Amino acid sequence: GDQEAGEMGLAAVPGRQAAFRQGLAAAVQYAQAVGCPRIHLMAGRVPLGADGAAVAGEMEATFIENLRYAADILAQEDMIGLVEPINNRITDPRYFLNTPYQAAAILEKVGRPNLKLQLDLFHCQIMDGNLSWNLETYFPLIGHIQIAQVPGRHEPDSPGELNFPYIFKLLESLGYTGYIGCEYAPKGDTLEGLGWLRSYWESRGVQHGGTSKAME
After folding, report:
1. Does the record's keyword annotation contain Isomerase (predicted)?
2. Domain presence at residue 121
3. Is 152 exposed, middle or buried (0-12, 13-18, 19+ CB in 10 A)?
């Protein structure tokens, strides 16, 4: 969509189906060029001046229509589409998709195996908490995970509500083998801010490159 016009994705925005399809085609080209097999299909915002509850049904129907179209296109390229709930309490009051429950219900209605949940634990904590329960419950749907400390949205070892060593251990016990996206704003220098990862590796007996000393 047109970010300067206040758009933040188009997948659930009624009347913007043609623009969504054009954007999807461009995204597939970019993904092919960089070798990325996953694309975040952003739902978009409730239109300005509209009552969210009043347009919810139409927006969900549009979302489902566009997700099915996207799933068919992405299947041809062996790619996965992701939908991400974004909190409407702090980050974006008008964003349509807000909770893992809402996302899971829509994915069930869409019924395509190559569409998954992109679970950002920052948004999930703000909207619902219960991170262990949410991870365990929605694990079969999860295609990507993102992290940031709450409420500052900085590094995982910055002051905040979330215990990331516990969360990482839980993800390992669940069998998660995908990437974890660092969707946070560094408090200072980016490399200095990655000290939390070096410390975590050391606590697990892993060298600074992801190689286990035990394996060597």
Report:
1. yes
2. yes
3. middle
Q: In this structure, what CATH number is given to the domain that contains residue 46?
A: 3.20.20.150
Q: With contact defined as beta carbons under 8 Å apart, do 96 and 59 qualify?
A: yes
Which distant-in-sequence residues (6+ apart) come within 8 Å of 91 by Cβ?
A: 123, 126
CB 71 within 8 A of CB 107: no
**Structure-block tokens of residue 141:** 């749907």
Choice among 65, 84, 155, 172 that is catalytic: 84
Q: What is the pLDDT along the chain (216 residues), one digit of tens a residue?
A: 888 988 999 999 999 999 999 999 999 999 999 999 999 999 999 998 899 899 999 999 999 999 999 999 999 999 999 999 999 999 999 999 999 999 999 999 999 999 999 999 999 999 999 999 999 999 999 999 999 999 999 999 999 999 999 999 999 999 999 999 999 999 999 998 999 999 999 988 887 665 555 444
**Count of positions (residues) in the chain:** 216
Determine the structural domain holding residue 35 and report its residue range.
3-204
Tell me, yes or no, if 7 is annotated catalytic.
no
Whole-model pTM over 0.90: yes
Assess if residue 215 is contained within a domain: no
- Choose the catalytic residue: 136, 172, 183, 202: 183
Tokens 């590796």: give the residue.
201
- The count of structural domains within the chain is 1
Q: Does the annotation count 84 as an active-site position?
A: yes
Cβ(69)–Cβ(76) under 8 Å? Answer: no
Tokens of 144: 């990507």
